[in-house]
Amino acid sequence: MMDISIEKIIIESLALTKDGVGIFNRDDRLIYCNDAIGRLFGMSAKEALNKSFSELSADCFNSSKGINIEFTTLEAWLSHASAKRRSCPYRAFEVDTQEDKWFLVTEQIVHNDYLYMYITDITEKKANARALQLMSEQFQKLATTDSLTGIYNRRYFYEKAEAEFNRSSRKNKIFSIMFLDLDKFKHINDKFGHAAGDAFLKGFADNVQTHLRSYDTFARVGGEEFAILLPNTDKDNASIIAERIRASIETLIIPFENQSLKITVSVGVVENSNEIKSIDQIMNNADKHLYQAKCNGRNQIC
Fold first, then answer.
1. Which of 137, 69, 138 is nearest to 97 (CA)?
2. Phi and psi dihedrals of 141, rounded to 5?
3. What is the DSSP string of the chain?
4. Which of 84, 118, 246, 266 could make a disulfide contact with 293, Cβ separation 3.0–4.6 Å?
5. What is the pLDDT of residues 99-135, one digit of tens each?
């Protein structure tokens, strides 16, 4: 019985594997590859064989197959790729194709500057990782936002306020906090029902957000109670923002079924100072100012 050569066994095995194997010579010409490597460049192994890396790249760049080359010119891509190829004895990186496939590519310098390429399809792994990321983002959103209004919740607000207090203490920065409470909100629930109250809370939150900056933190901290964290803002400028909100809510009409819902808001504003030693102290001060606004007749800022 004739022994089959080890070389023949290896070549046949490499041809059958789902992973890609290729060898580029010193002139960067592909002298061996299996079908998986060919597919990486959008062609069969037979078509890819004996082509240079530049020629393989040009085929991908000028067609809708193979490696996804996101460069405006082929020359820019080749310059980028050439700077990395053979830059170290071993490197690993990920590439995607125009067929929406992802591959982990490893390149290793062997036998006097020959380049050995090995690729593994990681499309499913990428999809699973993305699904896990989306799930994590959804859990994070559920954990930090109020389900009714879509703004932040009480827990997240207090975490942000604590972080801002620590940051301002280190860097001697100013910030302000305002507490907002809808005046006689119970009247809407009692007269029109909780669905009407929910509709107004949503409309109120949407309206307030139009008056805030992208880096302000707006949260629902109670039933009809809200809070706003205003970084780099003293109480005078915070009061200007509060007045805009108060005046806007005073004229706000929320349609619900056949009703037009109206309400006003009271606001307590406070800024941090060197005398304040904790975020809880600032929160208590804001709550006291809000209570004072309520006692003074509501629909005002204190």
1. 69
2. -65, -40
3. -PPPPHHHHHHHHHHH-SSEEEEE-TTSBEEEE-HHHHHHTTS-HHHHTT-BHHHHHHHHHTSSSSB----SSHHHHHHHHHHHTTSSSEEEEEEEBTTS-EEEEEEEEETTTEEEEEEEE-HHHHHHHHHHHHHHHHHHHHHHB-TTTSSEEHHHHHHHHHHHHHHHHHHT--EEEEEEEETTHHHHHHHH-HHHHHHHHHHHHHHHHTTS-TT-EEEE-SSSEEEEEEET--HHHHHHHHHHHHHHHHT--EEETTEEE---EEEEEEE--TT--SHHHHHHHHHHHHHHHHHTTSSSB-
4. 266
5. 999 999 999 999 888 999 999 999 999 999 888 888 8
What average pLDDT does the structure give for the chain? Answer: 90
Total residues found in the chain within this entry: 302
Question: Could you say which of 107, 164, 224, 271 is catalytic?
Answer: 224
Q: Is the pTM of this model over 0.70?
A: no
